[in-house]
Specification:
Elements lengths: L1 E3 L22 E3 L2 E7 L9 E3 L3 E5 L7 E5 L6 E9 L4 E10 L5 E6 L4 E4 L12 E6 L4 E2 L12 E8 L9 E11 L13 E5 L2 E5 L9 E10 L5 E6 L3 E4 L5 E11 L11 E5 L10 H20 L4 E10 H4 L3 H8 L4 E7 L4 H15 L1 E7 L11 H18 L2 E5 L11 H17 L3 E2 L1 H8 L15 H22 L4
């Protein structure tokens, strides 16, 4: 169902502040202003195809139906006419799924500047899986510029999503639960209703009604208890269905809660009981998932210390020249989902510099999460490693004292020898430190080693990374944040 609050907008400039709202049909809802809310369950809701894209409604959706765009050539896409004035605190939430499309381009046209605006870092999509996305439209740039942010005095008259420039048959993407809104959402979703559980040979099939929310639910937390035992979180799902294949035969209870795009957690649903009839299927856990079991309790405690003090929804990248690379924070933004991101990178600096600098950066940026990448410039000789680890531990301690969740990254390989032994030795110490401190690890070195020919990912000096290499780094942080979020999206 479409709720087109924006309708037609008076394009006037008499009162233009960063919080300006020049939409006659916008609706206030629990502290935010909604311009468009679309679930695509009835029609295309004003979207049209561009560049010969094939547009339709698809049954495979987060809930009900979804908008589907099949690419037929380069830049195939879909466009929505809008009319929203003022970029201040304007956000775009949606769920998106791609096939053969790693990311989908976004243009929002500003009639004042007569230029398209585009986010820094199109969000990465997992092939064939729904990905919740939040874009901050006041932190976009103009297409004619490579730096800076858009003017607060915008009038956005259209939004366009489009596929890659290099066309490949089978490329397509889908959109569901699209919301254009303004403000900071502090209102949690309502209680999930309609939860049903059915035992099948494939596992316990769960389904439920989409939760009501002033913006939209981002995803659902699924918790399970054996018979009358304690509940434990087992999964997250962006859709209103999920199959639990891990339970095994026996009596179970399930309950759910909804999480919105700004990480507000709703209440638990009523529990349902089911007698499962299938054997459990073995799960192949990633290293990040295995790490989560060890750091979960500690990370929850650190995060709780920062609630109401740190800058919620914000991440700081902190490191040497690798962190200072222009494109690197954009790649991190693409992987970190609903976080705003600032980067502080200092060429040629070592862990000791980071130790002395971190207090200043924490005071300045006050992040909810800090992603730390130091050590590339350190001496890798054995006798120097304890001091480097002591520096990194001090950086972590400074973060945790404020309630900022710290993540340490393994440094990328150096040069062209396949094993990159000095860096590998340094990184073994980093991982050992993370496990000792019970904090998350970002496996950047391991991402490079798994990617293949290093010359594609590193510059000619064998130290600094190319754009493709920066994407490896960003995605490594994203995989780790996914597990940190899994820990934090829970309640007793």
């Amino acid at each position: 169902m479409r709720t087109p609050f924006a309708g037609s907008v008076a394009f006037c400039f008499s009162v233009f502040l960063t919080t300006v709202i020049a939409s006659s049909g916008a609706a206030e809802s629990d502290g935010v202003t909604i311009y468009y809310r679309m679930d695509f369950d009835g029609d295309l809701e004003g979207w049209t195809a561009v560049s010969d894209g094939r547009l339709s409604l698809a049954e495979e959706a987060v809930d009900g139906k979804a908008l589907q765009l099949v690419c037929t050539k380069s830049w195939s896409g879909t466009l929505l006419p809008t009319g929203v004035a003022g970029s201040g605190n304007l956000k775009m939430a949606l769920s998106m799924k791609g096939r053969k499309v790693e990311s989908v381009g976004v243009n929002v046209f500003d009639t004042v500047a007569r230029d398209n605006t585009t986010p820094y870092g199109y969000r990465y999509l997992a092939d064939g899986r729904w990905t919740p996305i939040l874009y901050f439209l006041d932190r976009c740039r103009y297409n004619s510029q490579t730096t800076g942010f858009v003017s607060p005095q915008t009038v956005y008259d259209s939004i366009r999503f489009y596929g890659p420039a290099e066309y490949e048959p089978g490329m397509q993407f889908s959109i569901d639960n699209f919301v254009l809104y303004r403000g900071t959402d502090t209102q949690p979703p309502e209680k999930v209703t309609g939860l049903a559980a059915r035992a099948t040979a494939a596992g316990v099939q769960l389904s439920w009604d989409q939760a009501a929310d002033n913006v939209a639910p981002q995803l659902y937390v699924i918790s399970r208890a054996a018979a009358d035992g304690a509940f434990t979180k087992i999964a997250e799902s962006p859709a209103t269905t999920c199959t639990d294949t891990t339970a095994g035969k026996g009596a179970y209870r399930y309950r759910l809660l909804a999480v919105d795009f700004e990480e507000n957690l709703g209440p638990w649903s009523d529990a349902v009981r089911v007698d499962a009839v299938s054997d459990p299927r073995p799960q192949n856990s990633t290293q990040e998932e295995t790490d989560r079991l060890d750091f979960a309790e500690h990370v929850r405690g650190v995060h709780a210390r920062g609630v109401g003090k740190v800058r919620k929804g914000h991440a700081t990248l902190f490191g040497d020249s690798l962190t200072g690379a222009t494109v690197y924070p954009h790649c991190a933004r693409a992987a970190l989902g609903n976080l705003t991101v600032n980067a502080f990178g200092y060429p040629s600096m070592r862990t000791s510099f980071g130790r002395n600098k971190v207090g200043e950066i924490l005071e300045q940026d006050n992040p909810e999460f800090m992603f730390i990448l130091y050590g590339t410039n350190n001496n890798k000789a054995e006798e120097h490693l304890p001091a480097a680890m002591d520096d990194l531990a001090a950086i972590v301690a400074a973060c945790e004292q404020r309630g900022t969740v710290a993540v340490l990254g393994t440094i990328p390989p150096r040069g062209w020898t396949p094993e990159s032994a000095p860096e590998a030795d340094f990184n073994r110490r980093v991982v050992e430190l993370c496990r000792k401190l019970k904090i998350p690890t970002g496996y950047i070195f391991e991402g490079f080693q798994a990617a293949g020919d290093r010359r594609k990912y590193m510059g000619g000096d064998g130290v600094h990374w190319t754009g493709d290499g920066m994407a490896i780094g960003g995605k490594a942080w994203g995989r780790t944040l996914e597990q940190v979020r899994f820990v934090l999206r829970d309640r007793p």
